[in-house]
Amino acid sequence: MQADNANNLETQLTSQVVNYIRAKIEDGTLKPGDRIPPEREFAKELKISRASLRMGIGYLAAMGVMKVRHGVGTFIEDGPAEFGRSSLGLMGALHGFKAWQMFEVRKLLETSLAALAAERGSEEHFTILAEEVAEMYATIDDPAQYLIHDVRFHRTIAQASGNPILAALMETVSTALYEERRKTAERAKDRKSSLDAHREIYRAIRTGNPLEARAAMERHLHSAESELAAEQSGRGYRKRRERKPKLVSV
């Protein structure tokens, strides 16, 4: 019960930061490329702790709304902010979508997206994927930053699929899972296997091999789901998995 209350509070604080930034962008106070106030000042303005502020900023950075430049500051991204999909994902988290349901959708969507990216991806997409893999190597000891590059890697694959509808659906699921993934990333003892999996996916997409891209993504998601299941075992995740309805052939 205490864990659930803590999770709800974290989600509410993240939502507070998201809504505040959105209001500032909508009223023109913040524009693409603008730098937000220093962390201490910003947290005081929102009347929340700096740790809570970092959670919100991490969420927005992972969703492509903000960019954190180490040693420089945090900025509003130059591109269009995806608040519509981000907010929908946050609502999903608030209303209790089950993790196994999310992973079931991820497997259906992202394996196909990886195959399509291998067939349709451009050199620009391949370059971004390579950069994100490199950034994941550079931030392997920083869970929050590693997760941001992880999310961007998967978003780029969705964009490379050439199907914006599928990409939007994937974004919704990804945002709803973000908080759980953030907690798992913070406790993960070995990110090397995850990094290797992303590199395999990149290589399959880069070489234009849709079958291997699909298989590599499926292996990665299966491993990620198992890691989340282990993380949530004390909260009944495995029991929910056992009660998951069987697929019926028609």
Short key terms for the protein model shown above:
single chain, 250 residues, 2 domains, two-stranded antiparallel ribbon, 2 strands, globular
Care to describe what's here?
The protein is globular. The protein starts with a helix and ends in an 8-residue tail after the last helix. The protein has helices spanning 2-26, 39-46, 50-62, 83-94, 99-120, 123-138, 143-160, 164-187, 192-206, 210-232, 237-242; strands spanning 66-69, 73-76. Helix 1 packs antiparallel against helix 4 (83-94) and helix 3 (50-62) runs parallel beside helix 7. It has a two-stranded antiparallel ribbon. The mean pLDDT is 79. It has eleven helices and two strands; from the N terminus they run αααββαααααααα. The protein is mainly alpha-helical and 250 residues long. The protein has two domains: 2-76, Winged helix-like DNA-binding domain superfamily/Winged helix DNA-binding domain (Arc Repressor Mutant, subunit A); 83-242, Four Helix Bundle (Hemerythrin (Met), subunit A). The longest helix is centred in the N-terminal third of the chain and has 25 residues, at 2-26.
